[in-house]
Design goal:
The structure is a single chain. The protein is α/β, with parallel strands linked by helices. Helix content is about 40%, strand content about 15%. It has helices spanning about 45-65, 75-90, 100-115, 125-140, 150-155, 170-185, 200-210, 220-225, 255-260; strands at about 30, 95-100, 120-125, 145-150, 165, 190-195, 215-220, 230-235. It has an 8-stranded mixed beta sheet, with helices on both faces. Helix 1 packs across helix 2, helix 2 packs parallel to helix 3 (about 100-115) and helix 6 (about 170-185) packs parallel to helix 7 (about 200-210). The protein is globular. Bound molecules: S-adenosylmethionine.
Length: about 260
Amino acid sequence: MRVKAEKWTSRGEKWPTEGEKGSSLPGMRVAAAEELFPRLGGSRGFRESFEKSRRELAADYIDYIFTTSSALHAVSLPLAAFMLALCRATEPSSVADLGSGFSSHVLRVYAGEAAHPVRVASVDDSPSWLEKTEEFVERLGHSPDGVVSWADFKQTGAGAFDIVLYDLGTMDTRARELETVLAGAKQGALVVVDDVHYAAYRRIVEERASERHFVAYDLEELTRDEYGRFSWLLTRSDTEEETSVPASAALRSPRTKAVNSVS
Ligand SMILES: C[S@@+](CC[C@H](N)C(=O)[O-])C[C@H]1O[C@@H](n2cnc3c(N)ncnc32)[C@H](O)[C@@H]1O
């Protein structure tokens, strides 16, 4: 029997990419990225910031995929640029990349330029990739502080972060641990979930997001790469009812949220 290459991940797991987009789950709405932009400085401003971020990151990205990892395993350059532009637009005080690597550099670029202190956590379930991440971020002049194992991160709780990139381990691990990440996410947190081009994984993301009353934004237009990978952004609705109202109404800026939550 002929099996199409795209049915398999680089680790040999069976995760088909085929499948309809658009949720049929009750209360679950997948909004277009355009609905997100008004909260990120407007469509034009955000797209300019995205392109600027992409140009700024390009040289270090090439370095990373040739010296440390590979383009297939690393976050895509478009998603890296999206994360930097997202941080610049929302000014979070705490950011986490679950699945360390080039993204760990991206979050530290933001932390280094932010006008306020930013807590960064770079997390992996692979000790060897934690070591490679430490070496890479140090080589690019960052502190390796905040590079932690997934086991330790789970103990201390994922809930304390304003922005989370979920790109951890194998797809099997990803599907299994998503519940931990969404259950722990604080109100207003923005959770970017990569690799939703795998239809079966996308379905799991929809189910977990629906159960936890998250709204999804489809970032395919901005983050789709040469392997067909793309991402969604999830954010928790204020109330159960809000999952069926326009998704933009449910989005809160991390910075706004952080300021508002100080009593
Ligand atoms: C998609 S990768 C994470 C990529 C990361 N966010 C980045 O920006 O480079 C998912 C997992 O694969 C592992 N990994 C990273 N690079 C790898 C490589 N070149 N080969 C095999 N596994 C890798 C790590 O354990 C990581 O948690």
